[in-house]
Amino acid sequence: MIIPWSLKAQGNTLIEVMATILVVSVGLLGMASLQLKSIALNHDSAIRLDAVNLAYDVSDRLFVNALAASAGEYTIALGAIETTPANVDTVAEEDLNRWLRTANLFNGDFSITSMAAVGTEPAFYEIRICWADKFKAGVQAQCDNDYKYQAVRKN
């Protein structure tokens, strides 16, 4: 007896469809992983841009009020908080308060260290802004990432 061809090939189409579904699902999982990584990197670049803008903002304030900056009035420690408006006496304190108010929206820590001018040498300022990495697994430190900006003011 001769078996017709259609009866011998039963199940081959089902195996091909299952293999196709497997290949497509692996590809879609790879695309989803790529999309999640893209979102995380986009978030990181947005935070870095905020840090750069904060550093440029305070460096402009340093250069505008150069005498107070040379006297070290713009030096703040990591994690500083703004003072109450009643206790603000100088332009430098007001500048720092405004900057700290803006920087507090950043959800990170920030510091400004200054090396005052000596004689005719220029003054150096290091502005450090750091933040926790929300996408890092495990224990998060407050300064997983940081941005350091060094400014030089010539007398």
How would you portray this structure in words?
The protein has helices at residues 5-8, 12-64, 66-70, 91-104, and strands at 109-115, 123-131, 145-153. Helix content is 49%, strand content 16%. The model has no long low-confidence stretch (mean pLDDT 75). The protein is built from four helices and three strands; from the N terminus they run ααααβββ. The chain is of the alpha+beta class. A three-stranded antiparallel beta sheet has the order 1-2-3.
The backbone outline, from C-alpha atoms, is rod-shaped
Which assembly state applies to the chains in this document? single chain
Order of helices and strands: HHHHEEE
- The side-by-side strand order for the widest beta sheet comes to 1-2-3
The number of E-state strands comes to 3
Number of separate helices: 4
- Briefly note the structural class of the backbone: alpha+beta
Give me the Rg, rounded. 29 Å
| Average pLDDT metric | 75
User: Into which percent range does the helicity of residues fall?
Assistant: 40-55%
Instruction: Note poorly predicted spans.
Output: none
Largest sheet: 3 strands, antiparallel
* Fraction in beta strands: 15-25%
- N-C termini distance: 106 Å
